[in-house]
């Protein structure tokens, strides 16, 4: 199957036209091209059905009823081979299950509760466009949840939404300011990303526009690489000092730690607990794959489906599981994935690629190029950025959240559970489908 970049320019224009028309006029049945199925439409994890069904949910606010698969992909592994063992209909819970999630289980810091067990992942200014960042912030505000700035600094256009914006402090410290840390209800330290543990972050020069460089306090059109790791953090004691610094800057903020999933991720989790973090985000091997080096994708980090129970069980054995919130990311595509992650031991999930798919991503895998995204998502090009209206984008994300919340309610009802918290760690409710 050809990728988007392999196609003739005339074909690319046709794809862009059909894509824009389908998304803006409402999803029904996407017309196919003369040469058959749409090229560059996903892979075995993100199948064309999953992409189409995500667009449908972003348009309608409900899961599709036209035969599209919206629960899982076709990877023959991980979440795609897990399913729930539902109760007989007479045993279903008849009320509305509680989806709320507390993000603070420690004695200090703000008491923050979100109405749904998921929020938006870190995507930086430079990796995505200004309009996408605004759309995500608007949707987060409307649902009273959060979105993260990623490691590119805190752009001024996010300040009106600051009560719902997490500010990220990553190893490159690009654009990190104590002033913007004081805006944030949650300060997120990014130690590693799922798709590229041990490699740090990177933003190539053709995405580093004058505005992006100014925000990151760097030089325009020069590539920027975040080191691995923080060069001031080589022990749990160093880790705690860094957390203490953030708490000194903003005593009310919750502290979130984002890590990848090495083989000793359970020990990493314990270290973050003793550093006094409130939230630990474990980012599996599919996290941030759009702009990650090919050699690292799917080859280094542990899949999130394996990491979650490992961390959950170890924290239980240490007697500290109830004092830290575990959020899973890196491979979460659907409401079913969210529920399965929680059943494996997470408290909630963090969505990244899924949000971009809702806004029109086709998985053409050109996120790292300045003009690589033809749909105005992962771009810094002014012309392409204008393809996405922030209000339109916020409405689509809000609809997606509504569909996911609806599906989570149904999953809980069919399991006889009254709240999402009752699902955590219930591996007995899962069954493995062998292929």
Structural account:
The protein is α/β, with parallel strands linked by helices. It has two domains: 4-76, no CATH class; 101-363 and 390-432, TIM Barrel. The chain contains twelve helices and 14 strands. The chain has helices at residues 9-25, 48-60, 130-143, 178-183, 210-216, 236-249, 265-274, 304-317, 335-344, 353-358, 382-385, 390-415, and strands at residues 82-84, 101-102, 113-114, 118-120, 147-148, 165-170, 186-190, 202-203, 224-225, 254-259, 279-283, 325-329, 348-351, 430-432. The strands form four sheets. An eight-stranded parallel beta sheet has the order 4-13-12-11-10-7-6-5. Strands 1-14 form a two-stranded antiparallel sheet. Helix 3 packs across helix 12. The radius of gyration is 21 Å and the shape is globular. The two termini are 24 Å apart.
Write the layout of secondary structure elements.
Layout (H helix, E strand, L loop, with lengths): L8 H17 L22 H13 L21 E3 L16 E2 L10 E2 L3 E3 L9 H14 L3 E2 L16 E6 L7 H6 L2 E5 L11 E2 L6 H7 L7 E2 L10 H14 L4 E6 L5 H10 L4 E5 L20 H14 L7 E5 L5 H10 L3 E4 L1 H6 L23 H4 L4 H26 L14 E3 L3
Parallel strand pairs: 4-13, 5-6, 6-7, 7-10, 10-11, 11-12, 12-13
Antiparallel strand pairs: 1-14, 2-3, 8-9
